[in-house]
Amino acid sequence: MKPSTNRMMTRIKSVYMFIQEKGLVTTQELVDEFGITPRTIQRDLNVLAYNDLVHSPSRGKWETTRKKVKISS
């Protein structure tokens, strides 16, 4: 795997775990927490949503789904 792909996957995993820990979070909270652009966080959220791991109950807010996930280190 390319180093950039590995970095992206690590970041997406961190975003997922942050949402799971906090419950309901805003896109802006994620931008602030991870220090990345709103566009980058939106791409990460799109990956998570595509895989049915997060959903947006209202515009700009995110929470995890009930899909079972096995997180490896």
UniProtKB/TrEMBL annotation:
Gene3D superfamilies linked to this entry: Winged helix-like DNA-binding domain superfamily/Winged helix DNA-binding domain
GO MF assignments: DNA-binding transcription factor activity
The organism's superkingdom is given as Bacteria
Q: Which Pfam families match?
A: HTH_DeoR
Report whether Transcription regulation shows up as a keyword of the record.
yes
Question: What organism does this protein naturally occur in?
Answer: Bacillus zhangzhouensis
Q: Which UniProt keywords apply?
A: Transcription, Transcription regulation
SUPFAM superfamilies, sorted: Winged helix' DNA-binding domain
The name on file for this protein is Alkaline phosphatase
Domain (HTH deoR-type): give its ranges. Answer: 8-63
The UniProt entry, under InterPro entries, shows: DeoR_HTH, WH-like_DNA-bd_sf, WH_DNA-bd_sf
On whether Chaperone is a keyword of this UniProt record, the answer is no
